[in-house]
Amino acid sequence: MASPTVSNRIQLVQGDITRQEVSAVVNAANSTLLGGGGVDGAIHRTGGPAILEECRIIRASPDYKDGLPAGQAVITTGGKLPAAHVIHTVGPIWHGGQQGEPELLANCYHNSLRLAAEHQLASVAFPGISTGVYGYPKKEATSIAVREVCQWLSENQFPQTVVFVTFDDESRRLYEQEL
Ligand code: AR6
């Protein structure tokens, strides 16, 4: 049987990322890994304390004593979420675009996908990393998200499927245009 094309491996869903039945959901975290608002708050609220416990263990390792740098990713349990895992990544805070924001945002997608592949995860759901509190312009962020995911899928077998989860109508339209 022919392998599915990249576009057949991408889905667009409008809704709450914590309800996605996927192998892993990606958390738009901050470098403390100890929780926050937006997607981060929703994931910890719905997933329960097991996620925070693992985040604290990660923070206790010498590698992450100063926190998780922007662009990097780590994986924990999904606790009580339908998803078995959470991949936590830290998006860049938007400072106008001249401080490495596009590269850092691309790294978030790339490193999250690399972790998913290392764990042979079938499906991963991404929110629009950095497009909330961190202020990244949605159109530019969407373009980077779609570009990085398409490139990864064209070169790798895992994850088999990527789901872009959008919250609002504007974001959904931007993904539709980009895809
Ligand atoms: N499901 C899907 N998308 C959502 C949800 C949800 N439940 N909630 C919000 N969005 P944000 P950031 C959308 O602010 O910009 C936290 O405090 C939202 O509309 O969650 O990376 C962290 O601890 C937006 O488009 O993440 C950090 O301190 C996108 O998800 C900081 O916010 C991301 O919004 C990270 O900010």
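qc> The chain has a mean pLDDT of 97.
qc> done
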